[in-house]
Amino acid sequence: MIIMIASRTKRPVRRLAAVLLGAAVLITTACTPSGESGAGDGTSIVVGAYPFQFAAERVAGDLAVVTNLLSPGSDGHDLELSPKQVTAVTNADLVVHQSGYQAALDETITQQQPARVLDTADFLQLLPATQTEDGHDHGAYDPHVWLNPMNLAEIGGQIAAVLAEIDPDNAASYAANAARLTDDLTGLDDQFSAGLTNCRTDTFITNHAAFGYLADRYHLHQVGISGLSTEAEPSPARIAEVQQIAREHDLTTIFYETAVSPKLAQTIASDLGLKTDVLDPLETLSSESRGDDYIQVMTANLTSLRDANGCQ
Predict the structure, then answer these.
(1) N or C: where does the chain have the smaller number of CB atoms within 10 Å of the terminal CB?
(2) Which residues make up the CATH 3.40.50.1980 domain(s) of the chain?
(3) Which InterPro entries does this UniProt record tie to the protein (predicted)?
């Protein structure tokens, strides 16, 4: 089933003032990890996270201008929009987003009603968020859907279907590009499946519980020091629990990500005599990323996991 137009009336308006008065993150130009790419007079696509940019660029080629609202190295959850970015969303031919991930973008879509919205929550199977310390997930879902490569392949196919509706003369090109993207992501998925099959442990600890889709796809057990919020401070009891898990599973590594302070992960690792390493949730691509695109960074993630978990 192809979902082309997401509902834009079900979400309440809570932060319009924040949307309009948010920090001015200027839209940059010309093929940067956050900014615009593609032909100047093509279809306009606006996204709020790098993986959606990657998929849109691969599917559209030079037939679209893709604008990423999130600046390199930023925490995707904290996106705020400048007036210029609100205008970009309003005037876009297509907005690709994950509802419940970035409140400012959700609310701008609700208010401004861009022509077409592709909400990945409407066609992907969402996973519940990691439980909080009180034992409840409060009905939240993990928004990091792209950390399962096959989810990103499906997103690419959905983008191709919407672009074919906008620009039917180039429908065959969009379909062919989406098929090539799926082939590449299927190859990446095969590498993960093979690379994480024979491992000393299936458990990994990370400071931000963003890897639920990766863990679910490849039969791993994610332990987040904190939950989905990168700003949440774990309690002493939670830190002690994480340390005990590390001991029980004889773990070697505590993972952190470049967009979040590594201090907590480093402290826990130091207390246990363990090392730290990067596991990238790929919300953005920056100069600190271990690769130049989604596939390269995900491959680096695979290498880190194999090394930490003693995979053969």
Answers:
(1) N
(2) 16-191, 195-309
(3) AdhesinB (IPR006129), Bact_metal-bind_prot9 (IPR050492), ZnuA-like (IPR006127)
- pLDDT over 50 (residue 108): yes
The pLDDT score that the predictor gives to residue 2 is 46
Which residue's entry shows tokens 């191709």? 160
At 274, the amino acid letter reads L
Handedness of CA 239, 245, 251, 256 (dihedral sign): negative
Provide the pLDDT confidence category of residue 134 given band limits of 50, 70 and 90. very low
Evaluate whether 71 touches 281 at the Cβ level (below 8 Å): no
Short-list 72, 61, 65, 59, CA closest to 32: 72
Predicted TM-score (pTM) of this structure: 0.85
One CATH from 3.40.50.11710, 3.90.226.10, 3.40.50.1980, 3.40.50.720 for 16-191:
3.40.50.1980
Domain 195-309: CATH superfamily is Nitrogenase molybdenum iron protein domain (3.40.50.1980)
Q: Once rounded to an integer, what is the mean pLDDT over residues 44-72? A: 97
With 70 as the cut, is the pLDDT of residue 4 above it?
no
What does the DSSP assignment read for 234-290?
PPHHHHHHHHHHHHHTT--EEEE-TTS--HHHHHHHHHHT-EEEE----SS--TTSS
**Looking up tokens 């205008």, which residue turns up?**
87
Cα separation of 87 and 114, whole Å? 10
- Token pair for residue 275? 């090392």
The residues, ordered by sequence, that sit 6+ positions from 79 with a Cβ below 8 Å of its Cβ are 48, 69, 70, 102, 104, 105
